[in-house]
Amino acid sequence: MEAFARRIKGDVFARLSRVIDPELGRSVTDLGMVTDILVEASPDGPDRIGGADRPVFDVTVYVELTIEGCPLTRTIAERIDAAVSSYSKAILRPHQEVSSMSRDKLTALVDQLKAERRANPFTKAGSRTRIFAIASGKGGVGKSSVAANLAATFAALGYDTAAIDADIYGFSLPGLFGVDSRPTNLNGMLMPVTAWGVKLISIGMFAGSERAILWRGPRLQRSLEQFLTDVWWGEPDVLVLDLAPGTGDMAISVAQALPNAELVVVTTPQPSASDVAVRSGLVALQVPMRVRGVVENMSWYDHRGERLHIFGEGGGRRVADQLSRDLDRPVPLLAQLPLDTALREAGEGGRPAVLDAEGGLADTPMAAAFEGLARNLMA
Question: Where does ATP bind (predicted)?
Fold first, then answer.
C-alpha cells in the first residue's frame, strides 16, 4: 500500500502539471505553487464501485498562492480538486492546505516572468497574437461598443482574448464589461482583470471614471507601453484595442508600438461620419499598419418588419472604396451592424450585448452579425 501511495503521489503531481493558473497562464507546478502532496490510506477502507474494490486515499495538496487573497483562489482550488478526484486507479479524496508565497519566492518568480518577457510581448518573433485596432474618425459612431462586443465574441468562440482600452480620455470598456475592480499588482507586474472571458486593462481601472485624464505626448505614449509591457498577458490568440477617435497621438503610438496590428475602421452610414472615417484609415499611409477593413455601425433599424435607414445609406461602402483607392489595395466592407437598443441596454448593465447571461453567444441577429465579423477577421 505504501508503494502504491508513492505512485499516486507522482501521478497526482503529473496531473497537477496540467492545471493552469488562469492569470499567469502557466501550470501550478511550473510556478512552484505546489510545494508538497501527502497521500494517506483512508481508514474507511476500500469502496466497491462497478463490482470491484478500489482503495481509498486522502490526498492533501499543499498550495502556495502568489499573493494572499488572490482573486482567482477559488478557480485554482476547484481545478486542483478536479485533477485529484478524477484519478481512475483509486478513489482519491482531495484536500488542500493553502498559504501564500514568501516575499523572496514571489520576487524570484516575478523576476523570472519579467526576464522571459523583457519587452513588448506582441512584437517578439513567433508571437501568434492577432491584433485588431478599432478606430473611428469621430466620436459617437459606437466604436467602443464594437470593440467590446467583438472582444466578447472572440472569447465566446473559444479564443484566448485580451483587450486594451487605449482611449485614455474616453475610456469605456470597464463599464461595458461591468468591471469595477483594479488589476492585481504582483510585485510590480499587473494581472489584467478578466470579465466575460476577456482579459482587460484600462486607465479607468486606476483613475476612476469620474476623473479627467489630461495626458499628452510622451506620457500618453508611455501609458500604452505600460499596458503592453507591465501587464502579464500570457499568449492570447487575439488582442483588441479600442483607440481614441481621430488620428491623434494614441493612434500613432499604437502604430509604432504594434506595427503588426490590423486597423478596423468604424463608421456610420451618413456622409459626415464616413468622410471623417477615411482619415483614420489613411494613418496607414504614414505608419506600417494594415487596414483590415471597414465596419458600418447603425446601418438600419428594424421596426415592425420595416428596415429604416435612420442615418442614410452607403457610408461603409464609401469608406471602403475610398481607402481602397488611396491605399492602392483592397479594403473590404467587413460588416454592417444594425441599430439595436439591446446594445445600449446590455452595455449599461455591464454585459456585452452579444452574450447571454451564461457568457455564450446569444441567439440574436446582433450576435450573429458579430460572429460573422469575428470569423471574417480571423480568416
Answer: 137-144
